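Appendix C reproduces, verbatim, an entry submitted by the partner laboratory led by Prof. M.T., so that reviewers can inspect both the input and the predicted structure.
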Amino acid sequence: MPTTQPLAQRLACVEQRIDRACREHGRARSEVTLLAVGKTRAADELRRAFAAGVRCFGENYVDEAVGKLDRLRDLDADWHFIGPIQSNKTRTLSARFDWVQTVDRAKIARRLADQRPSSLQPLAVLIQVNIDREPQKAGCDPDEIDALAGFIAERDALALRGLMAIPSAERSASERREPFARMRSLFERLARVHPCADTLSMGMSGDLEDAIAEGSTLVRIGTALFGPRPG
């Protein structure tokens, strides 16, 4: 999409894509949350997105996010962390975010729980799954989900809400649904044991339709909403 296109128009296009995908696969539009990915975007851009109707925002880098959270503290928005987690950043994550989507090991879950301020609601967390078992990518092995979910569920300061994944980009268009289908199976299994799990975060600007077809309840949209990243 051209960068000169107003954000409201880009948002309308994204909403149309989500609406169409939901209709095609027999799902209600209310089942899918749009998460605006603010990586490298200025606080003013996120404020414009909020004014246009976006209510959920995702950030990848803690230091970058903190400045924006300070500038946008007046917005009644949900803030999700969707980037890799460093142990020395967990205190900030636990205190400043509503959701952390990239929990992939018990050590991180423990730190987030121990550092969550008692004045706040439990921190909503998703388990990030390395669905294609890519060595360079964060996320727990699919076989490790059950143990990690049990560990999270034991902590009062955390609320286990589901799973998140970023499948390999090295797939043809005809193959893109396959890892999403595997994630759906893992999510359904998790929800049978932990009924509180209600969120399956998968799908981005280029593949949101395939993700919605396979049950995604939250799509993470950056480029399609804000245009190409600067630089």
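Residues 160 and 194 are 8 Å apart (CA to CA). Additional entries are available on request from the coordinating office.
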